[in-house]
Design brief:
- InterPro entries: Formyl_transf_N, Formyl_transf_N_sf, GART, GART_AS.
- It comes from Bernardetia litoralis (strain ATCC 23117 / DSM 6794 / NBRC 15988 / NCIMB 1366 / Fx l1 / Sio-4) (Flexibacter litoralis).
- Keywords: Purine biosynthesis, Transferase.
- The protein is of the alpha/beta class.
- A 7-stranded mixed beta sheet has the order 3-2-1-4-5-6-7, covered by helices on one side.
- The longest helix has 37 residues.
- Bound molecules: 5-O-phosphono-beta-D-ribofuranosylamine.
- 5-O-phosphono-beta-D-ribofuranosylamine binds next to helix 1 and strand 5.
- The site of 5-O-phosphono-beta-D-ribofuranosylamine (GRF) has 14 residues, from helix 1 and strand 5.
């Protein structure tokens, strides 16, 4: 099973996911980033994972990212802190095979501009009593694909955006690898079936 992780920044989720599958030898990863200076690249290298950096044109104008993914026979695309919109050619080429994690309870606090600390600041400013994480399939619009998993976290009155960010990250690190494992299990089953019938 070939997984492509798209990440633009720190990459803590990417690292947790890669570590989670270390012993599953039929699962392999490639990390793609739009940011040559992103810490995720360092993390991936340390974990022995191939890295590819691409530019805007290669995602939106030419088909170079798409061709790369097809060439690698990617089964699942995992977005982990990826800041750009996924273009429709990718959504079409990988139907229901692109998954994202969002640090809030969608449909609240989603959409353009709602990422990272912006989300937590808005949640705290609005005096919400809980927030959480959403794992969802990806379509052409920011944060609007089908939700596959949500988990809540309680916000205490004294919590700052920073504290909330920590709580959310802990939840992400716990659940994202597990949900991806479920998706991979489905892919395994389908592949085995195909092998048996061909
Ligand atoms: C996560 O909070 C995720 O929900 C959001 O971007 C953040 C990425 O964090 N989409 P990291 O780079 O994995 O540490």
């Amino acid at each position: 099973i070939q997984i492509a992780i798209f990440a633009s920044g720190n990459g803590s989720n990417a690292a947790k996911i890669i570590e989670h599958f270390k012993l599953q030898k039929d699962v392999s990863f490639v990390v793609l980033s739009n940011n040559a200076n992103a810490f995720v690249i360092e993390r991936a290298k340390r974990l022995g994972v191939e890295v590819a950096v691409f530019e805007k044109n290669e995602l939106y104008k030419t088909k170079s990212v798409l061709q790369f993914l097809e060439c690698k026979e990617i089964d699942l695309i995992v977005l982990a802190g990826f800041m750009w919109l996924i273009p429709s050619n990718l959504v079409t080429a990988f139907p229901d095979k692109i998954v994202n994690i969002h640090p809030a309870l969608l449909p609240k606090y989603g959409g353009k501009g709602m990422y990272g600390d912006n989300v937590h600041k808005a949640v705290i400013e609005n005096k919400e009593t809980n927030s959480g994480i959403t794992i969802h399939l990806v379509n052409e619009k920011y944060d609007e694909g089908q939700v596959i998993f949500q988990e809540k976290v309680k916000i205490e009155p004294k919590d700052t955006a920073e504290i909330l960010a920590h709580k959310i990250h802990a939840l992400e690190h716990l659940y994202y690898p597990l949900i991806i494992e479920e998706l991979i299990e489905e892919i395994r089953k389908k592949k085995n079936k195909k092998e048996k019938t061909s």
